[in-house]
Every structure is written in structure tokens, then in C-alpha cells.
Amino acid sequence: MTYTAKDYDRALTAPDQVFDSPMDIVTTQSMTCEQKLKILKNWEANARDLQVASEENMTGPGISRLAEVKKAIIKLCELENVTERSFS
């Protein structure tokens, strides 16, 4: 699937509404490594927030996909030979 600039903008705030899984971000050819990493890092932050809320018995919609997101970040960094902080 080809992703547009509009998809990228949407994925920055709600990645799970654009991508079925974090690994889909890694495998897309429609975005740069920097864009992919930004989306994954935002998804990681969202997943961490959801996990904290869950631990405080304030569950919201959805389940945390933190482990899945972290694996995707590691895979992207390996494939692109970058670190998580390469574009910070």
C-alpha cells in the first residue's frame, strides 16, 4: 500500500488508525526512515501511556501494543543501520 502525506500526518497522532501493525510501518516503502521512526516513537509513547493507565485501573479503549512497537523499532534500526536517536 502507498501512504500519502495525509496518512503520515494522521499516523503521527493515531498510528493504529493508519497501520494494522507496527511492523507495517517498518515494511512500507512510502515513507522515509525518519518518518517511520517518528511514527513508531509516537506509537510507543501512546502504548506507554495506555500501559500506565491500565496499571492505575484507568483502562481506556484498546490494548497496549508496547512490546510489538518496541520490536518494530529495533527491526527498523537494524534494517536502516540507525539508532533510535538518529533523528532526534
Task: Give the helix/strand layout.
Elements: H1 5-13, H2 22-27, H3 33-55, H4 66-80
Helix pairs in contact: 1-3, 3-4
Structure, described:
This protein is mainly alpha-helical and about 90 residues long. The relative contact order is 0.18. The model has no long low-confidence stretch (mean pLDDT about 90). The chain has 4 helices and no strands. The chain is globular and about 40 Å long. The protein has one domain (about 5-80). α1 packs parallel to α3 (about 35-55). Helix content is about 60%, strand content about 0%. The chain has helices at about 5-15, 20-25, 35-55, 65-80.
Briefly characterize the structure.
60% of the residues lie in helices and 0% in strands. By secondary structure, the protein is mainly alpha-helical. It is globular and about 40 Å long.
